[in-house]
Amino acid sequence: MKTECQNIRFYERAAEPVSSAGDFAIEMVVLLLMATGTVFVYSAGATLAPDAARLRFYETPMFKQIVFFPLAVGILLLMKRVDYRLFRLQGPLLKSPTFYLVIFSFISLAAVLIFGEERNQSKRWLDLMPGPMYLSFQPSELTKWVMILFVAAYLDKVGEQIQDFKRRFIPVCCIVGLAVGLIVIEDFGTGLFIALLTFLLLWIGGARWWHLLTPLIVAVPGFIAAVMLSPTRLNRIKRFFSFLLDQEGLPYQAQQSLKAISVGGLWGTGLGRGVFKYGHLPEDTTDFIFAVIAEEMGFIGALWVLLLFTLFLVFGIRVVLRCPDRFGKLLSAGIVFSIGIQAAVNIGVVTVVLPTKGIPLPFVSAGGSSLLLTAAATGILLNIAMQSPESVEVLQG
Questions:
Q1: Beta-carbon neighbour count of residue 208 at 10 Å?
Q2: What is residue 45's DSSP assignment?
Q3: Would you give the end-to-end CA distance of the chain in angstroms?
Q4: Cα(229)–Cα(124) distance, rounded to whole angstroms?
Q5: In contact, 337 and 319? CB cutoff 8 Å
Q6: pLDDT at residue 9 is higher than 60
Q7: I want to staple 357 with a disulfide (CB 3.0 to 4.6 A). Which of 189, 364, 369, 383 is the partner?
Q8: Strand order in the sheet with 122-129
Q9: By 3-state DSSP, what share of the chain in percent is helix, strand and coil, each rounded to 5?
């Protein structure tokens, strides 16, 4: 009896997360990115538009970002204390939170196509609280993280059986494919992004390379059709390649972005002293916030943001390599790759290395759905980093 009690106490001590330098470093980097984003969203939110005088402060993007910043920090710290192994698919399916998250994400994707609020010629948002304190929710953002969680949990459950093409590989591709299909109708970039992350996770999870090529038979024609059937998407791609070939026809957003970056020079025009945010640079608080940073803080400010994301990737990959269990390794890899690739794509768009696409800069761009969900995912990453190898061995034993 005494030995049994000692084993229980040892299990409780071993299962308790242990803080380490790795999770502290990631936490500090993320807090610095969110603080940087709040400052520059506030700066970019300044406007000289004729109807600006009629706006109350709580109706502006600046106010919402100031509110979302502490909320995101709170969610990050909360999820940091939630054991990531709760999201595994081991045991009864109905007892896993991942199962219900997948169901909810599909329901929300269907709802946005029917009841969604149309902005910029696409339905991506569900109204949560209409009125002066307007709040909305973007289901595709939730689905992105849910699919990472689901694919990692599925690969952990099936193990090496993922090499069974019919019984294991096809089912996961069908579920992710359905999600991507619902998203790509209105949001091409996020759909393509989820498909890419799934490909990476399946590759890391041990799927055969020729299995990974088979979904392309359906995916490639589907994405081509999504581009060809949308004049807006087709024009963006045509203008981008036209610019690469003859330096003409660059879209207005890309032109203004390059001008803002060039004006910034080495040290920038000064915080709050940028001029392109006054109606010249569309989506200045969201997709093109990096251009505002480069204009007002110059090359040094842009380098600061790049350095923070580089540190996040370095510390995040360290967590992936040191994690001793399969689920934690796959899930942390999905989170780190998602944030890293998203940052690279956003900066590539702003610097006109890539065609214009609405991908926000993680932690920095304005937007409640993106910020809060990314903070939650980072909290899970921190929990993975906090687990000691000894605790994982005891729990699995």
A1: 15
A2: T
A3: 20
A4: 18
A5: no
A6: no
A7: 189
A8: 117-119, 122-129, 135-137
A9: 70, 5, 25
Rounded-to-integer distance, Cα 317 and Cα 323, Å: 10
Residue type, 111: A
Mean pLDDT, the chain, whole residue set: 84
Three-class SS of residue 275?
coil
β-pair type (122-129, 135-137): antiparallel
Beta strand pairing status for 122-129 and 117-119? Answer: antiparallel
pLDDT tens digits for 207-259? 998 999 998 888 888 888 887 877 777 777 777 776 666 656 677 788 889 89
pLDDT of residue 95: 86
pLDDT score recorded for residue 171: 94
CA torsion through residues 113, 63, 307, 237, sign: positive
**CB proximity list for 174: less than 8 A, separation 6 or greater:** none
Q: Residue 123: which of 106, 103, 104, 109 has the closest Cα?
A: 109
CA dihedral 125, 129, 132, 134 (to 10 degrees): -30
Look at residue 17 and tell me whether its pLDDT is greater than 60.
no
Count the Cβ atoms, other than its own, within 10 Å of residue 364: 27
Contacts of 238 (CB under 8 A, 6+ apart): 249
Q: Which two tokens stand for residue 255?
A: 């032109």
Residue position matching structure tokens 């040892």: 10
CA angle 384, 191, 156 (to 5 degrees): 35
Tokens of residue 256, six digits: 């203004």
Tell if the pTM clears 0.85, that is, is over it.
yes
175: left (phi over 0), alpha (psi -120 to 50) or beta: alpha
Burial class of 349 by CB neighbour count within 10 A (0 to 12, 13 to 18, 19+): buried
- At 19, the pLDDT band (50, 70, 90 cuts) reads low
Q: Is the pLDDT assigned to residue 14 strictly greater than 50?
A: no
Residue 334 near residue 201, CB atoms below 8 Å: yes
The C-alpha atoms of residue 302 and residue 385 are separated, in whole angstroms, by 28
Q: Give the pLDDT band (50/70/90) at residue 369.
A: confident
What percent of the chain has a predicted confidence (pLDDT) above 70? 83
Residue 91 has pLDDT above 60, yes or no: yes
**Alpha helix segments (H runs only) across 185-281:** 188-204, 209-213, 216-228, 231-246, 252-264
Question: Tokens for 18?
Answer: 């242990």
Reported as a pLDDT band with limits 50, 70 and 90, residue 395 is very low
Q: Please, are residues 361 and 370 in contact by the beta-carbon 8 Å criterion?
A: no
